[in-house]
Specification:
alpha+beta, about 30% strand, four-stranded antiparallel β-sheet, 3 helices
Length: about 160
């Protein structure tokens, strides 16, 4: 964070959205697709939990230190594909994380780019059962499914009428 009126990074500012959302998520406490909405407010895709399948493998091995290379690869596969991340609104001043209700959980590295149109935020949702966008109005606090994508994976949606 760079405070207003400064050109220096604030070394005392620490905000870890995934840890705030779930302090017990020790295997993949990360977030992705961070975007600022307005002064002090942002949104991001935040990994909310460690998949139980990964925890079971670690427990069966007797701890992380005992994992074989094959088990580590298996855990990486689980962490990277589990639908354990949720779209969240972030308060950058109060350091809070609020999941946006009504949008299915996705993989933390799921594809698709978000976009803003007419004050509404379009958020990609790619799961084993859905491939589309949800429309979130942060001012009204409403969410609805905007559209489904068929025949291809989501990479991005562009309004070509913007001519830029």
């Amino acid at each position: 964070k760079i405070p207003a009126g400064s050109n220096e990074i604030d070394p005392d500012y620490v905000f870890e959205p995934a840890v705030v959302l779930n302090p017990t998520n020790v295997f993949l406490p990360t977030f992705n697709k961070f975007n600022v909405l307005s002064d002090g407010t942002a949104f991001a895709l935040v990994n909310a939990e460690t998949p139980q399948e990964a925890v079971v493998i670690v427990q069966a091995a007797g701890g992380v230190q005992n994992l074989s290379p094959e088990q580590i690869q298996q855990i990486f596969g689980i962490l990277f594909s589990a639908e354990s991340a949720v779209w969240c609104e972030l308060d950058l001043e109060a350091l809070t994380v609020t999941p946006i209700d009504g949008i299915p959980a996705v993989g933390i590295f799921a594809g698709g780019q978000m976009f803003v149109q007419g004050g509404e935020v379009y958020l990609p949702v790619t799961t084993t059962s859905e491939n589309g966008y949800y429309k979130w109005n942060p001012n009204a606090g409403t969410v609805e499914k905007a559209f489904e994508v068929t025949g291809a994976d989501i990479s991005g949606v562009y309004n070509i009428a913007n001519n830029n």
